[in-house]
Amino acid sequence: MITLVSAPTNLGLRPPQPGGVPGAAKAPEALREAGLYDRLSSAGARDGGVVLPGRYVDDDATRAPGRVRNQDPLVDHTWRLAERIERVWDDGRTPLVVGGDCSVLLGAGVATARRGRAGLIHIDGHTDFRHPGNSDACGSVAGEDLAAAVGLHWSGLSDLAGLSPYVEPRRAAHIGHRADDEYAAEARKRLGCVLPAAALSEVGVEAVSEQLRRAAGPDYWVQVDVDVLDPSIMPAVDSPDDGGITASQLTDLLRALAPDAIGASVTVFDPDLDPHGDYARLLVDILVPGLSSLGGGRR
User: Chain-wide mean pLDDT for the chain?
Assistant: First the structure.
């Protein structure tokens, strides 16, 4: 059964404007208001509480070289989220982390690394593979989380407690980037499977899910960044890019992957860009059928 864990962090995102604060931290409560918790609870899910982040600060003018934005509170949140995820496992349940931004992947990575490691299926409109070895613009973990998870970032982020890599690179599988993603070529060389968003239309959900599962192995975490959806469907994200997948494709992909997953996280929905709640309700209509069976095939 699922235990929902709220992780309302925005610490890994760039500010929407100088001095501004990203809205993704509001996502867990916006999705709760849209019915996510009630609808999953009717199928046996429990509310596992909230892991609160530290205060977001636009530290671009003061951050020292070799550090990411909001690094100290982000690392603190990573540890506390990892501990909460592990407590859910100790209760014999499957965690569904509702972010927040995709820096929550580090918390999942630390938790899985401390339990013997697992694979990763990364569903995202971007590869999130920027790292110090391929860019001088590092600083926002939400664009660097996959690289950090496989050990390619600064050690203060990707090697907490000597656990690097949180995910073995060949057990990391990605789906969803657009054709112009500048880091996709490197990701394909380093990771077990890297597929663009177009693959779902070209070969279908069944073939894609099989490729992802084959790379990730029998135990895997599923990370879902909702900007994998085309912005004509989901514009309420910080980095919308044309060429994304449809709502039904995401639902079907999650339905195929969820039963054998050890946990999942959903990130980057921005309620500030959804004043009437329409996109929150759309997400709930995707996530409930897609993730209701999360972990169900492992019992």
Answer: 97
